[in-house]
């Protein structure tokens, strides 16, 4: 494998590298987008917010704020608890966390969206994140560019009989005579 890569032009190796890294990134983002999108079709059940508080932590020298919201619900007579408000990402700032807490005070009745196969997996706000969709769009563009760089390093060849692409040797020998 190393010999094959060593014999390739640098542009082909770079194109393959771009394709590989971006494909892994795009698959991860696609999975997150799919999970978020699936929550839009989940059934709902009545629930109650059982805990609603602000959590503060230090990340390096920066303060991070998180809205800790827990809800309880029942599906098929079985009780469940969830600590996930949404599948979307959330900024770690205090103002955002306080807005989430204002929407979900302790004791508030809520509609809980739950996964039919695993009702313990639930969210209060279904959907996916615009940031994830934007990053997925950028990854798709980078995949196309990387694919173009990779493919452009291969020599063109014609499958039409009697046609040659520029730079390919003539099927005839020296002097224009076909070798026998």
Characterise this structure.
- This protein has helices spanning 2-7, 10-38, 94-103, 130-152; strands at 44-59, 62-75, 78-82, 109-114, 122-123.
- The protein has 180 residues and is of the alpha+beta class.
- It has a domain at 43-126.
- Strand 4 (109-114) and strand 5 form a beta hairpin.
- The longest helix has 29 residues, at 10-38.
- The protein is elongated, with a radius of gyration of 28 Å.
- The chain crosses the membrane at residues 12-33, 130-154.
- Residues 66-93, 157-180 are annotated as: Disordered.
Topology:
Blueprint: H1 2-7, H2 10-38, E1 44-59, E2 62-75, E3 78-82, H3 94-103, E4 109-114, E5 122-123, H4 130-152
Antiparallel strand pairs: 1-2, 1-4, 2-3, 4-5
Helix pairs in contact: 2-4
Biased composition (Polar residues): 69-89
Domain DUF3592: 45-128
Organism: Deinococcus aerolatus
């Amino acid at each position: 494998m190393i010999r094959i890569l060593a014999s390739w032009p640098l542009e082909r190796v770079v194109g393959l590298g771009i394709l590989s890294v971006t494909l892994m990134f795009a698959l991860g983002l696609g999975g997150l987008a799919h999970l978020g999108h699936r929550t839009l079709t989940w059934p709902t059940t009545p629930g109650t917010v059982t805990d609603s508080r602000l959590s503060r932590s230090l990340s390096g020298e920066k303060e991070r704020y998180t809205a800790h919201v827990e809800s309880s619900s029942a599906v098929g007579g079985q009780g469940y608890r969830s600590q996930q408000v949404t599948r979307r990402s959330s900024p770690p700032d205090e103002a955002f966390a306080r807005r989430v807490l204002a929407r979900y005070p302790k004791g508030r009745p809520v509609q809980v969206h739950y996964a039919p196969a695993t009702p313990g997996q639930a969210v209060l706000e279904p959907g996916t994140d615009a940031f994830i969709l934007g990053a997925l769009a950028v990854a798709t563009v980078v995949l196309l560019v990387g694919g173009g760089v990779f493919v452009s390093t291969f020599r063109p060849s014609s499958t039409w009989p009697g046609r040659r692409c520029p730079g390919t040797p003539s099927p005839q020998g020296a002097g224009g005579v076909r070798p026998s």
